[in-house]
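Fold this sequence, please.
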Amino acid sequence: MRKSGLFLFLTTLMFLGSCSDDDPQSEAVVSNEPVIEISTVTGEEGSSVYATSASFNLTLKGVESYAYEVEEGEVTDTPDGAVIFANAEEEGGSGIIAAEDGTNTVTVYGLEGNTTYTVFFAFKLDKEYVVKAQTVTTPAYSNVISLISTSVDGLKFHVEVDEDTYYRYGITLADNYYTMREQFFMTDYTFLESGVVAKGPQTFDIKNGSVMDPNLPADEWNVYNYFLPGGTYILLMGECDAEGNLLGEINPEFGGGGIMWSQAMPDFDNYVEEYTDEDFIYDGTFARMRFWTASPTIRENTTEVTTLKKTETSLTISVVPGEGVMSYGVGILSSTDYEHLLGWVGEKGIMSEIFYNYTSRETEPNEVGWTGLTVGETYKVFVISNYNEDLTEQSMYVMDVEMTESTNPDCQLVVTPVSSTDPYSVTFNVKAPNKDCYGFRYLMNYMSDWESAYYDDEKMFSMYGVDIKDASVYNLVNSDEGYNLVFGSWENTESKILVAGYNVDEALSGIQESRNTSAMETGTPLQSDLFDKISGTWTATYTYSKYKGGETTTASFPVVFTQNADEGPASISGIASEDYQNLLDYWMGRGYDEETAKNRIEEYFNDYKESAEKYSEKYRNLNRIVGNGFEPLHKFMGTWDLFCNLSYESATTDELFYDYGPKMFLQVVRNEAGEEEIGLVTYEYAIPPVSSGVTYYDYVIFGQNSEGEGIYKNATFPVTLSEDGNTLTVHPVEDNTISPYPLYPSIGYYMTANYPSLTLWGVSGITFTRGGEELATSNMSRSFNPNAVEPIPAHRSGNRFMKTYLPTEKTAVKFKKVTKEYQSLETILKARIQKDLK
């Protein structure tokens, strides 16, 4: 039977010279007549390679070229030489091989053990073809695992065991295998636990899309789908019982589960039959093999790579794809990471490993840059070009780049605070007196956050600093006026900024520090009876959906409107005995004696009362009234609840009045006609969120319509009070410039990109009817049900209001600019594994 697609590799070895004078064929060799002789090269006895391959010596003279094909069994029907040559050019064929006078050695791969094959060689002479046959029988398999052949998207291998032996086998990418071992301490036992169960000697032919475990029900099938051209893989096999339990026992010295915290890495031999991890004592057969899928065809590189700029810590290159290039990948690795990776995948697998895991795919000319490189380290830049759509024809360009120290002077910056009357921003001026700034790094936050930071300033700056390298910005830093950095802030809050400048080589100067405090928020209180009319307990009715377009719910719950921010007892003696004892135990548990602990409680209680008075005055001055409680979101936890709760932490007692909730604010204003108007205000910089420290997220109110995609922050919803003073209505925003409208009050929290994730989709306004004191009494209690939200430590990092308003980088005319911060091999692999585990 004819076999096709088996012969993936062909090796033509060195010219070995002619036969000796006493060789009976020597006259033929030295004559002008063509010479064609074939002999089998005997491999090492018992070699697994020999079980899956056969080598032949071809003694030739006067032969232009040759090709071959293989058929299973002893075949006597000789094919035509022209047909063999034609088939040789097809996929899986031998290819047409140029002949050398003398001895040519060729190895045929992809054979199976203990099988007879007929190899037909077709030799092209001047005007004719000569076909000769050679029969060979491969020996039986001597290894547990024998690799028969590979393709660009799969492999064929044989497992040789007794007929009644059960075993598990599994295949994984080499970088996954070694990363899981290095970073997560997995062992071969752990990998095999999820392997496929099989029985007896078998030959497995696996490609992308093959079913991993055909013994499972069809609706539970998983398929192999990760074979890549030139990829490096680990194949594991371990004996088990009929139920799939691996034979042996967990080593009691290292605990269970196959996890061992001090596990050594295995050696990098391509084939072993000894279980080397110390977590498991194996009683059965075991084998591990590293193999490579068939590599792409390697072409000469045509892509042009030019270094545009190199500094101490950054590199920028241009890449212009050459003739025939359909796409290309660009990547960078430090020499240390490259050598580490090379140990995992070997020279055979390094090109595929880099292309698929460490490059970004592009098609057009690009400027590609990297920042965060290390002075003194050498990096390898890779550009791998593709010449067809299936990525099986490639070339690789490699450039070594050493990062060297700058010899130019450091850039010295001067940072000064800039006064402002805006309570919700803070400004710093940055100036380079020597006009030698080529960018800068900054880190800015509230002083309360700096004081509670885990690391010192220098390390915080190194880890979390933000780089600004836009020429339109640093050119202003070099101006006589300097450049103003404006950040969002919270009113009357002190902030600290750290700044360091980059010189022309991007060497970073010493860190400069400055502090600034935002202005107090002030206002003119209105003499209005609306505040008295609104104050008190109301029952709110709100219709919402937890999912866009989902089923709606109408909920009723009490809300207490007040301008009094004080929820605590009038004096320290009024603290509930249980709360006081808990606070006392807390401070004494931190090493204070009883008297000092009591003083600490009194100190913070006095701070709380001062904050409560300050915020009560603020509410009155700004004509705001706060509504406490919004039950559909979560149970209410007030400022005094947070004060007494030991699991909540904050830098100052002022933060209690920011974090507590859920709450909402109404504001009374006088319009141009002198009429009083009420609004539900949601301005995120000036209005505290619905709740913060009570939950894991900062919940905010915004406007939206579930028929559209827009989220409208900072919306003010009109509010009306009925003539009898018993109904308060929050209306949707009617604005025909917005589509769709109206905008309904909705509540969500910020997850990414400063964009809210919706929790409650409003589908109506909110109606308040006077009354509900009995409900409110139970709702305001700190005796929560099991589903109540428990407080967590105050988590405001400062970046909630700390956005830097900078021009965006301009796109180059010819090149699309791509700049990335360099990530080490360890960082990349950890992130990839964590993503896979999710």
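The first helix runs from residue 26 to 30. The radius of gyration is 38 Å.
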